[in-house]
């Protein structure tokens, strides 16, 4: 098993952009959000358990997770959130670890939005990379991408680790306040460092 770097960051910080740049440089990328979407797509592997636990109103006509209904429920009900996580997290983790094990890349970037909150991958990720940006940028990017109100974005941010705590848990930090060139440069620098670490 080669070097595994855990990549995390608050909503709207730019985790997807950063992981895409690492992939372009030849790193393996395993994204737990993508795995979660596969599991909750029409007739995805988690959908039978979700239907059983929550009922038909949380499943769309084509057999996928009704994301809007589920988002509203888990924000209002912490028990429902824990119930959903109990279904999804073990399945996501099993698939992610399998993908890491099968990777032939020099090192693997494991993208986990709640890496530091859950501690599920602490034994696997040898370094923690946090993507950080100003809160106003976080809010603007998320509102633009996900068609959420500022209030909804702030509620999601409040449910995640405070920025200071997340940064304190980082081995490496990418600051995503600038443009793409700046981001590319930071990723390139870390890529060289990770290649050296992977060899050692």
Automatic annotation (TrEMBL):
Q: Identify the HAMAP family for this entry.
A: Dephospho_CoA_kinase (MF_00376)
Name the pathway. Answer: Cofactor biosynthesis; coenzyme A biosynthesis; CoA from (R)-pantothenate: step 5/5
Q: Per the record, what is one GO cellular component? A: cytoplasm
Q: Which domain of life is it from?
A: Bacteria
Q: Does the keyword Cytoplasm apply?
A: yes
One Pfam family per UniProt: CoaE
According to its UniProt entry, the function of this protein is described as: Catalyzes the phosphorylation of the 3'-hydroxyl group of dephosphocoenzyme A to form coenzyme A.
Record carries keyword Cytoplasm: yes
In its UniProt entry, what is this protein called? Dephospho-CoA kinase
The UniProt record gives the binding positions of ATP as 12-17
Q: Which reaction does it catalyse?
A: 3'-dephospho-CoA + ATP = ADP + CoA + H(+)
The enzyme class is transferase
* Family the UniProt entry places it in: Belongs to the CoaE family.
The record, for NCBIfam families, names:
dephospho-CoA kinase
Chief place where the protein resides: cytoplasm
Q: What GO terms are given for molecular function? A: ATP binding; dephospho-CoA kinase activity
């Amino acid at each position: 098993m080669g070097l595994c770097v855990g990549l995390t960051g608050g909503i709207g910080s730019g985790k997807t952009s950063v992981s895409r740049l690492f992939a372009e440089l030849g790193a393996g990328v395993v994204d737990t959000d993508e795995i979660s979407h596969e599991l909750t797509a029409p007739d995805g592997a988690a959908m039978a358990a979700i239907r059983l636990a929550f009922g038909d109103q949380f499943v769309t006509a084509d057999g996928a997770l009704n994301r809007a209904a589920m988002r509203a429920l888990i924000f209002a009900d912490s028990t429902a959130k824990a119930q959903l996580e109990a279904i999804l997290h073990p399945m996501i983790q099993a698939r992610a670890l399998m993908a890491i094990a099968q990777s032939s890349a020099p090192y693997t970037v494991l993208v986990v939005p709640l890496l530091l909150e859950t501690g599920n991958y602490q034994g696997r990720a040898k370094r923690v990379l946090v993507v950080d940006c100003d809160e106003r940028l976080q809010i603007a990017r998320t509102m633009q991408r996900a068609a959420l109100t500022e209030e909804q974005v702030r509620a999601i941010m409040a449910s995640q680790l405070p920025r200071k705590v997340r940064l304190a848990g980082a081995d490496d930090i990418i600051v995503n306040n600038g443009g793409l060139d700046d981001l590319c440069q930071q990723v390139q620098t870390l890529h060289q460092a990770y290649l050296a670490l992977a060899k050692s």
